[in-house]
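Entry type: protein chain
Record version: 2
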Amino acid sequence: MTLAPFAAALLLALAAPAFACGVCAEDKIAATYDHASVREALARGRVVVYCEVAGLPDVQRARQAAARVRGVDARSVRVSAQPSAVSFVLDPKQQSAQAAVLALQAALPAGAKLAILKVER
Protein backbone atom coordinates (compact mmCIF):
# COMPACT_ATOMS: atom_id res chain seq x y z
CA MET A 1 0.00 0.00 0.00
CA THR A 2 1.46 3.34 -1.04
CA LEU A 3 1.07 6.46 1.04
CA ALA A 4 1.52 8.90 -1.86
CA PRO A 5 -2.21 9.40 -2.59
CA PHE A 6 -2.94 9.82 1.11
CA ALA A 7 -0.08 12.32 1.52
CA ALA A 8 -1.24 14.31 -1.51
CA ALA A 9 -4.81 14.44 -0.21
CA LEU A 10 -3.59 15.52 3.21
CA LEU A 11 -1.48 18.33 1.71
CA LEU A 12 -4.43 19.58 -0.33
CA ALA A 13 -6.67 19.54 2.72
CA LEU A 14 -4.17 21.47 4.82
CA ALA A 15 -3.19 24.00 2.16
CA ALA A 16 -4.53 27.43 3.02
CA PRO A 17 -5.75 29.61 0.18
CA ALA A 18 -3.57 32.64 -0.55
CA PHE A 19 -5.24 36.02 -0.28
CA ALA A 20 -3.86 39.47 -0.97
CA CYS A 21 -3.79 41.37 2.30
CA GLY A 22 -3.51 44.85 0.78
CA VAL A 23 -0.76 45.83 3.19
CA CYS A 24 2.39 45.14 1.18
CA ALA A 25 3.61 47.26 -1.73
CA GLU A 26 3.13 44.40 -4.19
CA ASP A 27 -0.61 44.22 -3.42
CA LYS A 28 -0.99 47.97 -3.93
CA ILE A 29 0.91 47.84 -7.21
CA ALA A 30 -1.12 44.86 -8.40
CA ALA A 31 -4.38 46.66 -7.60
CA THR A 32 -3.70 49.27 -10.30
CA TYR A 33 -1.52 47.25 -12.69
CA ASP A 34 -2.54 47.19 -16.36
CA HIS A 35 -0.22 45.03 -18.47
CA ALA A 36 -1.19 46.55 -21.83
CA SER A 37 -0.71 50.08 -20.51
CA VAL A 38 2.70 49.21 -19.06
CA ARG A 39 3.91 47.56 -22.28
CA GLU A 40 2.78 50.53 -24.38
CA ALA A 41 4.29 53.05 -21.95
CA LEU A 42 7.69 51.38 -21.83
CA ALA A 43 7.76 51.01 -25.63
CA ARG A 44 7.18 54.77 -25.93
CA GLY A 45 9.90 55.72 -23.44
CA ARG A 46 7.45 56.55 -20.67
CA VAL A 47 7.51 55.45 -17.03
CA VAL A 48 4.75 53.98 -14.91
CA VAL A 49 4.39 55.42 -11.41
CA TYR A 50 2.68 53.47 -8.62
CA CYS A 51 1.68 55.27 -5.41
CA GLU A 52 0.15 54.40 -2.11
CA VAL A 53 -2.70 56.73 -1.12
CA ALA A 54 -3.54 57.53 2.51
CA GLY A 55 -6.14 59.83 4.03
CA LEU A 56 -8.29 60.11 0.92
CA PRO A 57 -11.71 58.49 1.36
CA ASP A 58 -12.66 59.06 -2.30
CA VAL A 59 -9.78 57.80 -4.48
CA GLN A 60 -11.68 58.96 -7.59
CA ARG A 61 -10.45 62.45 -6.65
CA ALA A 62 -6.92 61.15 -7.17
CA ARG A 63 -7.90 59.95 -10.66
CA GLN A 64 -9.28 63.35 -11.60
CA ALA A 65 -6.31 65.24 -10.15
CA ALA A 66 -3.69 62.94 -11.72
CA ALA A 67 -5.25 63.38 -15.15
CA ARG A 68 -4.45 67.11 -14.93
CA VAL A 69 -0.79 66.73 -13.89
CA ARG A 70 1.72 67.79 -16.56
CA GLY A 71 3.17 64.79 -18.38
CA VAL A 72 0.57 62.29 -17.14
CA ASP A 73 -1.34 60.35 -19.78
CA ALA A 74 -4.90 60.92 -18.53
CA ARG A 75 -6.11 57.66 -20.10
CA SER A 76 -3.57 55.68 -18.08
CA VAL A 77 -4.64 56.73 -14.58
CA ARG A 78 -5.78 53.76 -12.49
CA VAL A 79 -7.07 53.89 -8.92
CA SER A 80 -7.98 51.32 -6.31
CA ALA A 81 -10.04 51.94 -3.21
CA GLN A 82 -8.91 48.80 -1.38
CA PRO A 83 -5.97 48.79 -1.14
CA SER A 84 -5.83 52.53 -1.66
CA ALA A 85 -3.49 53.16 -4.59
CA VAL A 86 -3.05 55.12 -7.81
CA SER A 87 -0.88 54.55 -10.86
CA PHE A 88 -0.26 56.48 -14.05
CA VAL A 89 1.95 56.67 -17.12
CA LEU A 90 4.26 59.67 -17.17
CA ASP A 91 6.41 61.28 -19.85
CA PRO A 92 9.71 61.73 -17.99
CA LYS A 93 10.69 64.50 -20.43
CA GLN A 94 7.85 66.62 -19.02
CA GLN A 95 8.82 66.14 -15.36
CA SER A 96 10.21 63.55 -12.96
CA ALA A 97 8.06 61.00 -11.18
CA GLN A 98 8.75 62.75 -7.88
CA ALA A 99 7.71 66.14 -9.26
CA ALA A 100 4.53 64.66 -10.74
CA VAL A 101 3.62 63.03 -7.42
CA LEU A 102 4.26 66.31 -5.60
CA ALA A 103 1.98 68.10 -8.09
CA LEU A 104 -0.69 65.45 -7.58
CA GLN A 105 -0.29 65.70 -3.80
CA ALA A 106 -0.80 69.48 -3.99
CA ALA A 107 -4.06 68.99 -5.94
CA LEU A 108 -5.55 66.67 -3.31
CA PRO A 109 -7.40 67.75 -0.15
CA ALA A 110 -5.49 68.43 3.04
CA GLY A 111 -4.70 65.24 4.90
CA ALA A 112 -4.26 63.12 1.78
CA LYS A 113 -0.79 61.65 1.42
CA LEU A 114 0.92 59.93 -1.51
CA ALA A 115 4.02 57.79 -1.40
CA ILE A 116 5.79 56.37 -4.43
CA LEU A 117 5.89 52.58 -4.29
CA LYS A 118 7.62 51.94 -7.61
CA VAL A 119 8.64 53.66 -10.83
CA GLU A 120 8.77 51.20 -13.72
CA ARG A 121 11.16 52.23 -16.48
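Comment: Strands lie at 47-54, 78-80, 85-90, 113-120.
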